[in-house]
Structure formats: C-alpha cells, structure tokens
Amino acid sequence: MKEAIHKLHKNRIFSLIFWLILVFVAIIQTPNINTLTENASNITYGSKSQPAKAEAIKNRWGYQLNNTTGVTIVYNNPNGAIKAKQQAQIDETIQKLQKNKSYYSVKKITTTKTDLAGKGQLVSEDKSTELVELDIDPQSNNLTILTNQLVNQAKVNGLKSYVTSPEIVRNTQSQKVAAINDLITIALFIVAVLVVGIYFRSILAAFVSLITLFSSYVVSLGIVTNLTTRLNAPFSVYTPLEIAIATIIMGLIWNIYLFRRIKNTLILQNESAAATRQTIKASRFPITMTGLLLAAAFGILILVNFSPISSLYAVGISFLILMLAVLTINPIFTSALGESVFWPNVKPEKHRQPGVWNRIVSFSLWQPLAGLLMAIYLTFPFIYNFRPSLSYTQLSTLTANDQAVQGAEVLQTHFAEGKATPVTIYLENDKALNKEKYLQQIDALTTKLQSMKGVNSVYSVTQPSGMPISKYYVTNQLGDIQSDVKSAISKLTRVSTGIASNRRNINIEQLKKQVNYLKTLTNKSDKINSKSTDIQKQVSDASNNASVNQQSSANSKVKKYEQKLDKLNSQLDTTSTDMDALINQANNMQMYSQTIYNNMQTYNEALQKVKSDLKSLQLQVKNVQRGLNNVYDYLAALQKSTASDVYYITNAQLEDTDFLQTMYNYTSQNQKITALQVIFNNAPNSSDTPKQVKLLQEQIKTQLQGTTLKNADVAVTGEPVYQALEQSHLQRGFLIMATIMIVAIALAAFILSRAILQPFYWLIALIMSVITGTQLTYLALDYVANVSAFDWQVPILAMVVITAVGAWQIISLGLSMRYTRLNSLDWIRPSMASYGQVLRYILLVVILISLALTYGSSMVMIETAMISGFTFIIYYLILPMIVSSLGKMAVTVPDKTKLLKKHTDDE
Questions:
Q1: What is the DSSP string of 166-214?
Q2: Above 70 in pLDDT, residue 649?
Q3: What pTM value is reported for the model?
Q4: Which domains does the chain have, with CATH numbers?
Q5: Residue 586 has pLDDT above 70, yes or no
C-alpha cells in the first residue's frame, strides 16, 4: 500500500487530483460575474464622501423615495416642435405608466402637468424635446430589466423616445465591459495556445500550457469573487480581465521558460521524471521570487482607498495561484510524457543569436557615448512632450447604438451639454424650510450659483424653471405698492380739489341774509295774524249789526234787503270760518318760521366751523400728498436698485396652490430637506470638471455662512462629482501604485543582482520605454482615430501588463548577474546575447497578447494594447544601448580619471 502511494506521489497523481478538485469547486462556487461587474460600476468612496452624504440625506426624503434613482424619458421630434396630437399621445402614455407604477417600480412621475412652474427645465427652447422625470426603485428589480420595460412602455408614434440617466449609462458601460471581458478572455486563451504551439511547434505543449493557465485562472477568479461576495473585498469592472491578463501573460512567460529548460535538460537526462525534478529545482527560485514579489506589490494595493486600484489585490492572488500551478501542474505532464510533450517537434531547440541585438550591444560597447545618445534620441522627444490626458466620461467608451447614449446626446443637443449629467445639491435643515427666512436664503444661493462661470442653469424650490418668479420678489411687490401709492396720491388730489371747491361754495353772508329774510317773514306773519283777528272781530260786529237793523226796520226796504242780508250773513259766516283756519295756519307758520330760524342759526354756526375745519383738512391733505410723493419717489428708486432683487414670499403666497406643488417637487416630506439641480454649460471633462465642482462647494459654503441656513447639512452628488472624485483618487492612487511597483522591482533587482548601478539602468530603461510607448500611442490614436485622451482605466490595465513583463525581465537580468563569475564589464556582452534570445519570446508574447486585447473593439483595450506593445518594442531597442553604454562608462570613466590623476601627480 505504501509503495502504491509512493508511486502515486512520485507520479504526481495527488497533485492532479488536488487541482481537479480545486478547479471543480471553483467553478461551482464562483458567483455571477456579470452581476458583480454591474455592481462594481458604481464606485463607492466611503461614508465621508460627498456622494455618500448626499445619498444618506436623500434616504430621509420621504414620499417612499428612499433608495430610488432618477431616470429621464426623452421624447424628441426630429422634424420640429412636438404637435398637439403628439402631446396628447405622450400624456396618454404617461397616464398608462401612472396606472402601472408598481409594475415598473416607479415611485414618482414629474411631467409638465405636475410641475407647471418648472416647465422650463422639461421642455427645450425649440419645443422639439420634452422630458418626463421618473424616480424608480432599482432595489425591487434589476435596472437593466426596468430600463428595457420602460423603453417599450414609453414609445409614441412619430416621436423618438429614450430612457436615460447617468446610472443607466454606467450600467450600459458595465454590461459592455462584461461582454468585452468574456470575448477578450477567450481570445487570450486562444492566443496562449497559439503562442506555445508556434514557439515549440507542439500541440501537446500548447495543450499542457492551456490546462495550467485555465486552472490557475478559474481558481483565482473563484477566490476573488467569493472574497467579494462574502467579505466585501474590492472589485472593479475589469477585475476578471485583469486576472486573465496577468495569468496568461506571466503564465506564458513562465511556461515557455520552463519548457525550454526541460527540453534542454532532456538532452542530457533521458529519464523524464529526473529531468523534470532537476528543471523544477533550478526554476523554482526565479519563478517563486517573481511570483512573491508581484503578489506582494499588488497585494498591498488593497490599502488604497480607490476600488479600481485596490481591486488589483486580485492580480496578486492570481500570481500566487499561477506560481503554484506552473510549478505543480506542468511537472505532472512533463514527468509522465517526457519528450513526447513536445510532439510532434521533439528535436532540440536551436539557439539563434539575435543579429540586431548583438550589433546594438557591440556598437554601444565600442562607442558608449554614441549608444547612450542614440537611446536618448529615440526617447527624449516623446518624454519631453509627454502630456498625459485622461477622459473620465462613460460616453467616450460607448457607441451611439445604445438608446441610453442616444438619449443623453439628445439632451446635450437640445438643452445644455451638461443636462445629461446634472449636479444635485441636497440641503437639510433642522427646521422646516417653508418659511420666508429660509426660502430667501435658498433663492440667494440659487442666484449666486447661476452667476458662476460655466453654469448654465440652476433649479430650486424658489426658481423651479431656472428663472426668478417675479411675484415672489420685492421688486415686483414694490411695483404693486408703488401703483397703490400713485392711486392714493391721485385720489388725495381729487379730495383736496373738492374740499377747496366746497369751501368756496359755502357763503356765510348769503346765509345770514336768508336768516334775516326768514326773520322778516316771521314778523309779517305776526302782523297777518293780528290783522286776521281784527277782521274776524269786524265781521262778527257786522253780523250782529245786521241782525239789529233787521228787527228795528219795518219798512218795505227791510224786506227788500232781507234776502241780500241773509246771503251776506251766510258769506260772513263762511269768511269767519276761513279766517279761523287762516289764523291757525298763521300761528303754525309763525311757529315753524321760528324753528327754521333757530335751525338756520345753528346751521350757520356749524358751517362756520366746517369751513374752518375744511381749511385745516385741506392743509393736512396737501401734507399727506407731499409725503406720498416722497414715498413714491423712494419706492421708484428702490425698485430700480439691486436691493429690491430680494426674494420675499408672503404667508398668503405660501399657501398658494402653485407654490405648494413646487414644495412637493423640491422638498422632502417633512419639508426639512430641499434639492437644487445645477446644469453646467459643458459635459464633464478632466480639465474643467474638478475645478467647477470645487468652486461649487466653496460658493455654497460661502453663501450660507452667517445666514439662517448656516448650520444646514449640505452635500453634492451627480456625474460631475463622481468624475471629479475619480480623477483625484486616480491621480493619488496611481502615483502610489507606480511608486510601489517601481520600489518593489528595484528592491528585487538590487537584492538578486547584488548590485546597484546595473539594476538602476534596467529600471531607467523600463521607465523611459513606458513614457515613450504611452506618448507614441497617444500620437498614433490622435492621428488615426482623433482620440485626444485615454480612458482613465487604461493606465491601470497597462500597469498590470507592464509590471508583470518588466518584473520578469529585470529579475531575469538580476539572476544572471547574481550567478555570473565575470566582472560587470565582461558580463555585458554574453548576458545581453543570452537575454536577447529570451526577449524574443517575451516580445512575441506581448505582441500577440496585445493583438488579442483588441479583439473586442474596445477603445480602452486598444489603448492598453498599443501602450504595452510600443513600450516593450522601445524597451527591446534601448535596453542594450543603455546597459552597454552606461555599463562601460561606469567602469572606464573612473579608470580614466585615476590615470589622469596619476599622470598629474607624476608631473
């Protein structure tokens, strides 16, 4: 039994079983990579960052809008303004969407009907484009699925419709990256098979190499993805591809290196197991040293507070797994198959001296200064003009075929360029903001931000359309007051004129004459009354006398006059009766005349007082009129001054329906939080965006100082903020990353070579090559494809390739110098000749891998491939020049100095 186990161990069966189990577990335990890639598209910056603070404030908004994201439905009529019929179709479509809000996870819909005051930000100036803002909850459903559903629901005949937002564009980019990662990974494995197959002209060697690389990749990816899901380890959209690149590039270099040594060893050692053990023993140190160095260098990057860089710890893990796979999986097949592993080409490898390489070395050793100048001549112009420019926008890496990208471009065309990527300012106060003293400060902040350079418009609760609402401003209210004052002055003028007229119409002298006339009339009435009494007495006497004469007359005349006397007596009786009535009327008239006289006397006195009061009132009215004229002039001057451009909303206006609707759209449920939206003139870019975001934050802080909102919590978020953070974190993180890589490689080279100058030359040559290769790529793409800036992910991806290949080359040189018995000058020619053979297959690997990276037609990967390819072509050219020329000068110049000094001393 022991013998059988020993035989199995000797034949490395346990290693094979171990790797089979490991690969199987890794495959079944690896989570959904596309989901991880999609989640990684939203880079987090910690709880103290502005987007994190803004998200925390937003989650307290209420109205069931917690954890929602905003998307925009864009309706565009390419033939002109949206017609009434088309508008009706839009309204009908939105009504259907409103009815099915829960199905589409829609929490809020904002249209021109629900935000009348903010219509200006929803309709373009040419009326050809209309927006519908949605707040959706992607937590309840996948954002991609929701977007596709909304695209189908939002369609309107005769109009182009899009569903877009920065989050959707990011999600689209992550999906494209995931698809490209899969394509390029497949292409890389195909290239890996071709490289080994072409180099060794062997099918089996290529197959063995593929097994090693695939096993290492699957296990590395499984470990990294499980660390992400279980421990929340950093993960970026390019992490799977970075693992594939690191595994295949370094795996190919190590496999070719190992197979070459085994093939050479089999010439001297026929027994395959012994040859394998001998080769592994000789190769273990350089492979282990390189693997541990790269693992440590990339592993320490997990401490960098930027997930695209900190996620490179995964590359460090992949180097560790690859190191184990190369040293354990390859021997299983080489010890079992022996020379057959190189079938059908089992002939020994012929060593070919690289002619160009040797001639460069010979020339540089012959004329070291000329060789150095040649290296400088090839690289210095590119180094001198090196101006790295990076793009941080997602639109630069996406094609216009996607509907979200097209929607963003429509927004940029018909609104401002920054419309597709707004900045949102969240402001949270400890008290409700529905008070004039708070709204005034919000309006002042809005106006201040609108005056910033590069700002197109600012929307807020006080200016929902990006323009001041006149009725809420003092200048408009002063105009109303001014009109009222003017009207009052006009009325006072008429009153003053009427008073003067009435005062002139009151004639006291005439009134006195009328009173005297009434007095005379009263006296006459008394006389009439007296005379009437006398007449009555005379009539009575006449009546009595007539009766006596009738009794004493007996003659015939008495009878003749008897009838006339009777008639006269009757008339006198009537007259007496009438006189009684006349006397009564005269008595009444006398009484009324006295009363009238008394009243007129009183009225006369009253009128005299009224006339005096009217004179006083007229003076007072004139004084008031002069005062109101002064007030009118003051208000007119105040209205024209900037002091009147102040927001002031009355209590009645606070209860106005339009304003309540605006409050609903722009403030939280408890009215303690409000949001301001800032639109820049230009789309985000690396040169202006960080400055604009910084200035925006400074302006907010300055404007709120010393106001009623000085203690409010303020946070900004949006695509420009994210891009500014990406830029600042990348600049700082990449500097840390480059420093770590350079220091790690330098330390390894110094320790392994036991030298200082030569490793320094190697490192300088690599740095010069990287800068030259980057500038060459920039110039080539600018000329061919009009690309003026690299995507910001390119330096990270290029660093993975360059560090892996550069570390192996420099460590190989270090080991060559470590084990040589020659002095530093004599070591140059044979080591460079030997290294030229190694560099050929390394260059072959780099070039073919670079071609594989372009398979997905991704500009990011094309830029990465070109930088890597140009870098190592330049490195291939200048390394022998720098090593030979500086190596010889380092030895000969001090010797010449000593000889010159000795000659001087002899003289």
A1: HHHHHHHHHHHHHHHHHHHHHHHHHHHHHHHHHHHTBHHHHHHHHHHHH
A2: yes
A3: 0.80
A4: 1-30+202-344 (1.20.1640.10), 476-644 (1.10.287)
A5: no
